[in-house]
């Protein structure tokens, strides 16, 4: 297959998983390439996501690598052969590639877990709230670039809404709920939307009160996305300097532990709903 002009995070992940299998088998890239009748350059392109790979080649490599995890192999085949053209493609060339990658990852996730300390989660934001956040973070953006960012963020909610929503659980700190990114009306509307999503069963929301003892995770913001098999889970950290996708087992284990720890510091969903109700009246 010819090299791709633009590589998505999902394509990079497929290549990374094939490389992990090769390295676990103790083979050099040139040795794996020979199994396919290819050269080391082509193998490098496959493992970096620059070049595609067929189902036959995925299964041939898995066999040569002595991989017996059929569920993992089948999932890799789907990643290699599924040509998903989702709503996020409408923004290709309009928004940075990472925005499209996040939306695609959410689309394919089997579950979503998120921890947010300083802002309301993007999947639960109102247009006014999202606009205020983008405007603050990127004050130089003209309206022609700001508007599609807000629209894209609103459309991301399709992952947790609709006929087949992805299970979504988020832990939000009280600070995030109280901070006025714009004005009082924006904050009240934002809290009401969160309550609506809870009532519709679109989101499981847990709140960490500011007076909760034993919480030291002020920098704990993260999202964890379940894959078709645990080995294909994905984590990402979103910061002003950029988004980092995580697929290595050790840091994924750290994110799993982090979510359990932060969740343990939160109120249960029922208490959290009541907490947000009270906060809405206070604002």
Structure description:
The protein has 283 residues and is α/β, with parallel strands linked by helices. The protein has helices at 9-24, 29-36, 40-47, 55-64, 70-81, 97-108, 127-137, 143-155, 174-178, 184-199, 249-264, 269-282; strands spanning 112-116, 168-173, 204-208, 222-225, 234-239, 242-246. Helix 2 packs across helix 3 (40-47) and helix 4 (55-64) packs antiparallel against helix 5. The radius of gyration is 21 Å and the shape is elongated. It starts with 8 loop residues before the first helix and ends with a helix. The model has no long low-confidence stretch (mean pLDDT 94).
Rg result: 21 Å
Number of strands: 6
Helix content: 40-55%
The global form is elongated
Low-confidence stretches: none
Taking the alpha carbons of the first and last residues, their distance comes to 58 Å
Give the helix/strand class.
alpha/beta
State the major sheet: 6 strands, mixed
Helix and strand run: HHHHHHEHHEHHEEEEHH
Number of DSSP helical runs: 12
Strand percentage: 5-15%
> Mean pLDDT across all residues, rounded?
94
Strand sequence of the main sheet, in spatial order?
3-2-1-4-5-6
Features of this protein?
283 residues; alpha/beta; six-stranded mixed beta sheet; 12 helices; 11% strand
Quick rundown:
This protein is an alpha/beta fold. 50% of the residues lie in helices and 11% in strands.
Ordered list of secondary-structure elements with their pairings:
Layout: H1 9-24, H2 29-36, H3 40-47, H4 55-64, H5 70-81, H6 97-108, E1 112-116, H7 127-137, H8 143-155, E2 168-173, H9 174-178, H10 184-199, E3 204-208, E4 222-225, E5 234-239, E6 242-246, H11 249-264, H12 269-282
Parallel strand pairs: 1-2, 2-3
Antiparallel strand pairs: 1-4, 4-5, 5-6
Helix pairs in contact: 2-3, 4-5, 7-8, 10-12
């Amino acid at each position: 297959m010819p090299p791709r002009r633009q590589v998505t995070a999902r394509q990079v992940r497929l290549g990374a998983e094939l490389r992990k299998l090769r390295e676990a088998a103790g083979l050099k890239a040139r040795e794996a390439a020979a199994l396919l009748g290819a050269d080391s350059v082509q193998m490098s392109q496959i493992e970096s996501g620059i070049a595609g790979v067929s189902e036959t080649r995925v299964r041939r490599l898995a066999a040569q690598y002595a991989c017996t995890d059929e569920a993992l192999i089948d999932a890799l085949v789907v990643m290699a052969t599924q040509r998903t053209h989702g709503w996020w493609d409408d923004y290709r060339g309009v928004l940075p590639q990472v925005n499209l990658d996040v939306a695609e990852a959410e689309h394919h996730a089997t579950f979503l877990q998120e921890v947010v300390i300083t802002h309301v989660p993007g999947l639960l934001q109102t247009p006014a709230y999202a606009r205020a956040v983008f405007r603050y973070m990127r004050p130089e953006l003209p309206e022609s670039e700001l508007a599609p960012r807000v629209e894209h963020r609103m459309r991301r909610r399709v992952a947790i809404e609709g006929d087949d929503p992805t299970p979504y659980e988020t832990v939000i700190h009280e600070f995030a709920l109280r901070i006025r990114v714009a004005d009082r009306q924006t904050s009240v509307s934002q809290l009401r939307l969160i309550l609506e999503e809870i009532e519709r069963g679109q989101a499981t929301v847990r709140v960490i009160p500011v007076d909760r003892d034993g919480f030291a995770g002020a920098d704990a913001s993260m999202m964890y996305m379940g894959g078709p098999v645990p080995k294909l889970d994905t984590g990402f950290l979103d910061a002003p300097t950029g988004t980092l996708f995580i697929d290595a087992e050790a840091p994924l284990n750290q994110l799993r532990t982090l979510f359990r720890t932060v969740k343990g510091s939160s109120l249960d969903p029922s208490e959290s709903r009541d907490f947000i109700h009270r906060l809405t009246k206070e604002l």
